[in-house]
Structure formats: structure tokens, C-alpha cells
Design goal:
The complex is a heterotrimer of chains A (302), B (175) and C (230).
Chain A lengths: L2 H34 L9 H10 L9 H19 L18 H22 L3 H32 L4 H7 L8 H4 L1 H15 L23 H26 L6 H19 L7 H8 L2 H12 L2
Chain B lengths: L1 H11 L2 E7 L2 E6 L1 H14 L4 E10 L4 E9 L6 E9 L15 H11 L31 H8 L11 H9 L4
Parallel strand pairs in B: 2-5
Antiparallel strand pairs in B: 1-2, 3-4, 4-5
Chain C lengths: L6 H12 L7 E4 L5 E4 L1 H4 L14 H13 L2 E3 L26 E3 L7 E5 L4 H13 L5 E5 L2 H4 L21 E3 L6 H17 L4 H7 L1 H11 L11
Parallel strand pairs in C: 3-4, 5-6, 6-7
Antiparallel strand pairs in C: 1-2
Helix pairs in contact in C: 3-6
The chains are: A mainly alpha (302), B alpha+beta (175), C alpha/beta (230).
Chain lengths: 302, 175, 230
């Protein structure tokens, strides 16, 4: 077969695997949280049933064009992040469409979805969505500050902006990983990861009993299905980004599954026993220690 | 408590004073002197806390009895003041200048009994019933069972059992 | 129903009496300075009656009904005293998440509306508004004896006696109040009904819309909202 077509089909297969793994991971995390609370929790196949039910709703209503485009933007953010990131190091077919400047592009896609959601949700006309959007965007902006500082520090350290090169520089054993060679950047990024994944203590924006669930208030049926699909893909893509940047990349799907699970588990581990921060508290928190660690990381490698 | 009751009997010509418990007493006063007495009790006798304002419908005598229950927080005395007002065209002087929560009690009485309190702010607003256009429902000549049967579709076949008879028949069927 | 529904007469009768000020026809100044006339009841609210949405056929619908039954999202609107029996379902003893039942805060995202306990006229107005905002297919569970025949408050001037004359009910759970185990049994029965294909009461609401609306308007006398609430 033609090489372009082969690569395209393998990328789609990678997307399918990531989607299913993301749903399985989210239900596993919810079960873990439930076990901490002493319950059994949802069955592991519940996200698939939820998506089937959402896509099969018979009646839907729309508030205009932007309302339609909001979830599509969000899905584009997640899929875009997946498309340009190499998943498995050493395999050309599983490296998707990464190229030499993709570090900046991935950071852009991470924020892009949130902006699209904001536009769509505000078209819905729900006043609660507007409050949720302002909270979500302000929190996410400050989450990005230590993350960007850590990424800049890594770019300076490895003299490159390409994921594949960064992963290649970390091969050769455990001591070559970025977590060992650049611990300040790793610390800053892992702290900002808590905010990016949206678990306690930073889940004020999406929690169901906070001003009815923020931006997705008015979304239902297929719209909500698209948002949840994106949620699954985005979580795996973000965890894979962290894996590539700080933990040495993955040589096979098995290694990817283990590493993304552990990275995602870090945010659940911290958050299961903590209550939520208010937005003003979380904004101040991110601008304190994580930013300081990020600045130290840049100064070291200047 | 007896001293207090004697004192207000002299001042305001109260009747039917009765001390029901160690710190609880009831007394009756005229409609014209009621608010003056309540004000005196609040300012001078230490009854600074309003517990309740409610009404009783004495349909046989043709009067409403308004009951103000005041409480003295320092020594725990509770004094209930009965005021009899006419049933037709029932109005009473408003006491919202003494306690702010009097407004809510008076609003409730206006909606449920039809007792008007002219001058009280927000007294005409709906309290619980929205769009009610029938007789005020707490009056005793309002038949709530008939109203419910007419307006809300009752399910046929609803029966009632006396619990003692029912259990007797069930447990000792041979008697 | 294809015959003409006399919407205008019914709306006019109540429009004069109890229309909220923000829903009246009036003139406003647009942001660009011109004076325009707006009619909120026509402009902002949907004017279509609810439609019957037929289920698909055969094995596809069976599969979708199975998915809908296994993932019931309950609206978090406690209408009466019976909603005290819903928080125990989230505790470890009766864990309802095992059965796929989750609570959602907004009617747009929920499938099941639990009417728990007596329904006063004031709450019925809000419950109608919430129910009509839910997307189809949707189910109602009536909790407690008050929804069945009036229960303890059968002779009250402010509570309804039969819920199914105002909203279409799928399953009743008897009791005063039913314990959480009874609620779980009610959910199991609802799942059974949905899997058999009998959870189509939303379509019945659309078919007999006039009758339901007439019953509702008979007791809700200050109807200051549009006839169709979605």
C-alpha cells in the first residue's frame, strides 16, 4: 500500500486504541476513588454505555452555530494533541505526524479546546455556563504558567523543540530520564498537571454540584457525547505528553499503558482525599511554588 | 411571674390571666391596647424576643383570636397575649416596626385567614399559595376536603381501615 | 394529533391575567440605538408543540434500550419529603453507582425525574418546566403514596392527588417513604420496563398534550410562562 495511506490508517488505529484506553482509565480511576470511599463504584464498562446512551438521544436542541462548534473545537483540541505527538518511540508508524517543531504546537492544542468550549457554552445563554467559563479559563491560564516554564527549560536543556529528539535523548536507562537530569522542571510540571487533569483539589470548574457543572451545563445528547469522547482522548494524550517529556517515552504499547496510568494516577492519588480549592485560592497557589520551581529550572539551564 | 401579670393587669386592663407553668402565662387584652402593651413589654419589661404570631378561628363566637407569644431571654419567661378581633372585615394594627420578622407572620395571616394589617410592607404578596382566588383556607368554613375532591382528581377505590379492627381481623380470623 | 390546537385562545386567556412583566410585548432600544418591538413569548421561546419521536425498529432499538436502562441519569431536584431517601443511595451501603444510576444537576442532561412525595401546586409548576426541558426519551418515577392517590395529604387544598393526570408516570414506588431498598427495586423495575420497550411515556405526553395541559392549567392559576417549555 501507499505509505501515506498506511500511516493514516495506523494513526486512526492509534486514535481508536487511545480512545478506548482513555475510557477504561477514567472508569478505573472512578472505581479507585469509590474504593477509597468504601463503595464498589461504577462498573468498568460504564463509560461505553454512557456514550451509547448519549449518542442515541432522540431529541436535541441547539442555540445556534457556535453552540454546535464548541464541542467540535474541544474535540479538535484533543485529537490534534494526539495527532502530532509520537506515541511509541522507535516506530515510525506509531509516531503519528510529529515533526520538528511539534512541542509548541502541542502546547497550543492543549489550550485551544478550552477556548472553543468557552465560545460555544456562552452561546447557550445559560448564565451558569458563563460563570463556569470565566472560572475555568482563569484557572487554566495559571496552570499553563509553570507548565510553559518547565517546557522552556527542557527545550533549553536538550537544544530542541521536537518530541522525538527529546525522547531520543532520554534513552539509555533510568538515570537519563528528565526526572533525574532536570528535577525542578519535572516538579513544576507535575504540579501543574494536577490542575490540567481537573481532579480534586482543582475540579471546581467541572464538579457537578458547583453551579451546575460549569461550561457543559447546556450541552446534552450528542454534544455531551462529543465532549466526553474528547475527555477520554485528551487525558491519554496529556499523560503521554508528560511521559514523553519527563519519563523517557514508551518503547511499546504496554509501556505506554503502564506509564500513562501511573501519571494519571498521580493526580487521582493527590486528589482523592482533598476538598476543592476555590478559584482565587488555586490561582494564587499555581503562581507561587510551581512558578518558582519553573523559574529555578530555567535559571539553571540558562 | 405573678407580679408581672398583676402589673400589666393594672396598666392595660387585661383579663383572663392564667399561669400555665413555671414560666409560661397567657393573658387577654383589648384590640385597641394590644400593640401598646406589646411595645411596653418589649421596651420596659425585657420581652425582647418574638416567638410567634398566630391566629385561631372561633367560628362559634364570631371572632378571630390573635396570639402574640413573647419571650424574655434573660429569665426565660414566655407570655402569650390573646387579642380578639371581629371575624368580618378582620383588621389589626401592624407591629412591623417592633420586629422585622413580624412582616412574614402578618403576610401569612393575611393569606391564610384574611386578616389585614394595613401599613405593613409586602403584606399583599403571596406567601405559599400562588394564584389563589378562593376563600382564605385556614378559616373553618372552608371545606378543604370538598375543595380537594373537586379540584384534584381523587383516585377511586381509596379506602380507610381502622388499624385496631384491621389487625384484629387479620390475626384472629376465627373470632 | 393533527387537529388544530387552539393555542392562541388558551394563551390569551392567561396572558392578560398573569403575565410576568418581562414576557410582555414591548419596545426596547437595541444596542445600535434603534427602537425595536419584541414579543418574548414569540421570539425567545419555542413555539412548536412536543412531537412524538418514534423508536427505531428491531435489534437496534433493543440495544439502545439496554444502554439507556443501564445508564440512568437522575435529575437532582428533590420535589418533596421523599427526596430524603435519595442521599442514602450514594452512601456505601446502598451504592446506586453499581447499577449505573448517577445524579445530574441539570434537566438537560438527565433522563429520569423522580417526583418524591407530595406535589404542591407551586412545585408542580416548576416540575413541569423541568420535565419539559429534559430531552427525550425520559422517564418519571413517582415515589411514595402521595403520587398514587394523595397519600397522607389527600384532603389538602394545595397538593395534587393523582400524578398521572398532570405528568406521565412510568413506575410508582409505594410507601411513606419507601426505604432505599424499595427505591432500588423501583429502579430495577424501571430498567425492566425500558428493556422491554415500554418506556415511551414521553411520546404519550406528546400525544395527549392538550389533556395534560388543560389539567395543569386548571390548578395552576397564575400561568406566567410559555405553554411549551423547551
Amino acid at each position: 500500500m501507499d505509505y501515506t495511506l498506511t500511516k493514516f490508517l495506523w494513526t486512526l488505529l492509534g486514535l481508536f486504541i487511545v480512545l478506548n484506553w482513555g475510557m477504561l482509565m477514567s472508569s478505573t480511576m472512578r472505581r479507585i476513588g469509590a474504593r477509597v470511599a468504601g463503595r464498589y463504584g461504577i462498573p468498568w464498562y460504564q463509560p461505553w454505555i454512557d456514550l451509547t446512551k448519549l449518542y442515541s438521544m432522540r431529541s436535541q436542541l441547539t442555540h445556534g452555530t457556535m453552540f454546535y462548534i464548541g464541542p467540535v473545537f474541544r474535540l479538535m483540541g484533543g485529537v490534534g494533541m494526539f495527532l502530532f505527538m509520537p506515541m511509541i518511540f522507535g516506530s515510525d508508524l506509531w509516531s503519528n505526524y510529529s515533526f520538528s517543531g511539534d512541542l509548541v504546537l502541542i502546547l497550543y492544542f492543549q489550550f485551544f479546546g478550552m477556548l472553543g468550549m468557552a465560545l460555544g457554552a456562552s452561546e447557550g445563554g445559560q448564565p451558569y455556563s458563563a460563570i463556569g467559563i470565566s472560572r475555568g479559563l482563569s484557572q487554566f491560564t495559571t496552570v499553563e504558567v509553570p507548565m510553559t516554564l518547565a517546557v522552556i527549560s527542557i527545550a533549553i536543556q536538550y537544544h530542541t523543540l521536537s518530541f522525538t529528539d527529546i525522547v531520543a535523548a532520554q534513552q539509555g536507562g533510568f538515570m537519563h530520564w528528565t526526572v533525574m537530569t532536570n528535577p525542578f522542571a519535572t516538579a513544576a510540571a507535575m504540579l501543574s498537571l494536577l490542575g490540567a487533569f481537573g481532579h480534586s483539589p482543582f475540579n471546581l470548574v467541572k464538579a457537578p454540584n458547583e453551579i451546575p457543572i460549569g461550561p457543559p451545563t447546556e450541552y446534552h445528547g450528542t454534544f455531551l457525547g462529543v465532549l466526553r469522547t474528547n475527555g477520554a482522548i485528551l487525558h491519554v494524550a496529556e499523560a503521554a505528553m508528560f511521559m514523553n517529556l519527563f519519563f523517557g517515552g514508551a518503547g511499546s504499547w504496554f509501556e505506554l499503558i503502564i506509564k500513562t496510568f501511573l501519571i494519571y494516577f498521580w493526580s487521582v492519588f493527590v486528589g482523592t482525599v482533598f476538598p476543592r480549592f476555590r478559584i482565587e485560592q488555586s490561582v494564587v497557589w499555581f503562581l507561587k511554588w510551581p512558578t518558582i520551581l519553573g523559574i529555578i529550572a530555567i535559571i539553571i539551564y540558562m | 411571674m405573678i407580679d408581672l401579670l398583676k402589673d400589666i393587669e393594672n396598666r392595660f386592663q387585661t383579663t383572663d390571666s392564667v399561669q400555665q407553668k413555671d414560666r409560661q402565662a397567657f393573658t387577654t387584652v383589648d384590640k385597641g391596647r394590644a400593640i401598646a402593651m406589646v411595645t411596653w413589654l418589649k421596651e420596659n419589661a425585657g420581652f425582647t424576643s418574638l416567638t410567634l404570631l398566630t391566629a385561631v378561628d372561633w367560628i362559634e363566637d364570631g371572632v378571630f383570636q390573635l396570639t402574640y407569644i413573647l419571650n424574655n431571654p434573660t429569665n426565660g419567661f414566655e407570655l402569650g397575649i390573646r387579642v380578639m378581633i371581629d371575624r368580618d372585615g378582620a383588621t389589626m394594627e401592624s407591629a412591623h416596626h417592633l420586629w422585622k420578622n413580624m412582616q412574614t407572620y402578618q403576610r401569612e395571616l393575611k393569606e391564610m385567614f384574611g386578616i389585614d394589617f394595613p401599613g405593613c410592607p409586602r403584606v399583599d404578596e403571596d406567601f405559599i399559595l400562588e394564584g389563589w382566588d378562593d376563600m382564605p383556607p385556614y378559616r373553618r368554613d372552608f371545606d378543604t376536603k370538598d375543595y380537594s375532591t373537586d379540584t384534584y382528581f381523587p383516585r377511586p377505590g381509596r379506602g380507610s381501615n381502622d388499624p385496631a379492627e384491621y389487625m384484629k381481623k387479620k390475626m384472629y380470623p376465627n373470632d | 394529533m393533527e387537529k388544530d390546537f387552539d393555542k392562541k385562545a388558551l394563551t390569551d386567556m392567561y396572558k392578560d391575567k398573569f403575565l410576568a412583566p418581562e414576557n410582555e410585548k414591548r419596545q426596547v432600544t437595541a444596542p445600535d440605538g434603534s427602537i425595536i418591538e419584541i414579543d418574548p413569548l414569540d421570539d425567545y421561546f419555542c413555539q412548536e408543540r412536543p412531537k412524538e419521536l418514534k423508536p427505531r425498529k428491531g435489534a437496534v432499538e433493543k440495544f439502545l434500550n439496554w444502554a439507556r436502562a443501564e445508564s440512568l441519569w437522575v435529575l437532582g431536584f428533590g420535589t418533596g419529603c421523599g427526596s430524603i431517601e435519595i442521599p442514602p443511595l450514594v452512601t456505601p451501603r446502598f451504592d446506586m453507582f453499581r447499577y449505573g444510576v448517577q445524579m445530574r444537576p441539570t434537566p438537560r442532561q438527565s433522563n429520569v425525574f423522580i417526583i418524591s412525595g407530595y406535589l404542591s401546586v407551586k412545585t408542580l409548576k416548576r416540575a413541569i418546566r423541568s420535565y419539559e426541558q429534559m430531552p427525550s426519551p425520559k422517564y418519571i418515577m413517582g415515589l411514595g403514596s402521595c403520587t398514587i392517590n394523595g397519600g397522607m395529604y389527600w384532603d389538602s387544598y394545595n397538593t395534587i392527588n393523582r400524578l398521572d393526570h398532570y405528568l406521565p408516570v412510568d413506575v410508582y414506588v409505594a410507601g411513606c417513604m419507601p426505604r432505599p431498598e424499595a427505591l432500588l427495586a423501583g429502579f430495577a423495575k424501571l430498567k425492566e420496563l425500558i428493556k422491554e420497550g415500554k418506556g415511551e411515556k414521553a411520546n404519550e405526553y406528546a400525544r395527549n398534550f392538550d389533556w395534560y395541559k388543560a389539567n395543569q392549567k386548571k390548578i395552576i392559576k397564575d400561568w406566567n410562562m410559555p405553554d411549551f417549555n423547551w
